[in-house]
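Appendix B. Chain record.
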Amino acid sequence: MARKKKFSKALTVFLAVICLAVGCLVGYVGVAMYEAQHYQSDEAPQTLVEGELQIHFLELGNKYTGDCTYIKAGETDILIDAGSKTSSIPTITEYINEYVTDGKLEYVIVTHAHQDHYAGFTQTNGSIFDLYEVGTIIDFAKSNQEDKGSNNMYGRYLDERDAEVAAGAVHYTAAECIQQNKSVFELGGGISMTILDSYFYYNKAESENDYSVCTLFTYGEYHYLFTGDLEEEGESYLVDMNQLPKVDLYKAGHHGSKTSSTAKLMATVEPKIVCVCCCAGSSEYTDNNSNQFPTQAFVNRVAPYTDQIYVTTRSVNYDEGVFESMNGNITVVTDASGIRVICGSGDTRVLKEWEWFKENRTWPVNGK
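Structure tokens predicted for this chain:
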């Protein structure tokens, strides 16, 4: 009788262990399925895109507005800016390493000395310059920042840049590109990159933004314009000092601020596609809703030419650090079939179709 009880007790323990294991397995599978569903709904997996010219506008992994554009022109890899914080470096490198397979960036362009554009180049022992071999660096000719060595971001940028030059990179300021007649760079496959001329490469500006390096990419009959954070006065000089074409792509100046994408510039380039790198509706710089990126003034000036406006990110609650993708990482691809936009979030709605826009902005009557 004792033997039977002992056997029954052992059987009970065995069955309990089995039930516990099955329960854990079911729970694990349930959690995994929930996490997979959550991932798919909130963060669409990256999709490796193909095309002879790819222009990628990156989300930067935090609530802050910043710029980072990766361009793949055939076999040539180009990085324009690396904001918004040094903490964005892993987000940037994880993305571009899907495309940069040899550890080399043929060109790095640093538009101006504002953290949301150049933070990724400033981290001691771990900057973009440390992580990649860079062929040519092109950066701003002037700054109102003071070099305090390792004690400030500007000083760390200069140290990191100069170390990359010592390791073999070629360096030009935008002004030197113009003055030395080295403003046009042939990238292969019929793609070229032109450093545009600008008044504030040579003269003092009140705003750091007006020192921005401006570039024009050309591929056959297609044109793609980048103006950094250039503001109204800088844009006026840009139009006057260059023969700007109508452009197929315009990266919205200064994240879609009210001080950029002026009527004069828009009337000159008549953009067809506009990409805005920002957290829409973020209170990072102002509590005034109409002046939060992308601003109503920006919308009013761009709308007569196109409604093809795409935005990377939306701020949900700035104070709590909550944000989400709108179009996500935006890629503009050009190949033999033409030009197309691929949105990393999987949502290709243009700006005016989003609920955020309908609640916070209006589409002008003269808009397309």
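Further analysis of this model is presented in Appendix C.
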